[in-house]
Amino acid sequence: xxxxxxxxxxxxxxxxxxxxxxxxxxxxxxxxxxxxxxxxxxxxxxxxxxxxxxxxxxxxxxxxxxxxxxxxxxxxxxxxxxxxxxxxxxxxxxxxxxxxxxxxxxxxxxxxxxxxxxxxxxxxxxxxxxxxxxxxxxxxxxxxxxxxxxxxxxxxxxxxxxxxxxxxxxxxxxxxxxxxxxxxxxxxxxxxxxxxxxxxxxxxxxxxxxxxxxxxxxxxxxxxxxxxxxxxxxxxxxxx
Length: 240
Description:
This protein has a domain at about 55-170. About 15% of the residues lie in helices and about 20% in strands. The chain is built from three helices and 14 strands. Helix 2 packs antiparallel against helix 3. The chain is elongated, with a radius of gyration of 21 Å. Residues about 1-10 have low confidence and may be disordered.
């Protein structure tokens, strides 16, 4: 029987589903509308294969791990997570239905996301969206209190990157075709597996990191000068 065929709304059935598909450490309470609260941690069991979560969570007081479970939708994800959350390694094409506020880290790496629309708006730790199909960061969180990982995406723009100065380090894969001036909104920039040339570009960016548009003109000028020294066309990198 597929999860989508489960229609019972009784609390005993919800508890059976929790026991079958999840490892839960903590106290469970089920509301009248069958929303599940967990005072503790929740993780999907190893080897399960779910199109979607078989129950609807309301609040989890610690962390959630819904990784590598075959999920194609965020339906049923908690409304509130007071710890970290991971939906790593699923088949998600959208984050619609995902938790909006996460107090610690959030990881949606290794999915099939073409957009961050519908995902968390606030992340109190690191935000990781690497190895997806993202061409921009539009729809992503407006605040990230840790590092922002977006490596190995076919990015053509950094539009959507938080501009409030909350991001500590932006970790991206360097591309000569990627406009980089929006990265100046963060406090530090690092290229994943950078070589000597890209690291020189990184050093120029970090000279103006945290300055946003205020540092753009000076940073752009230095990048263009560096490009001439290296025999490279860095005009795309020097764009907003």
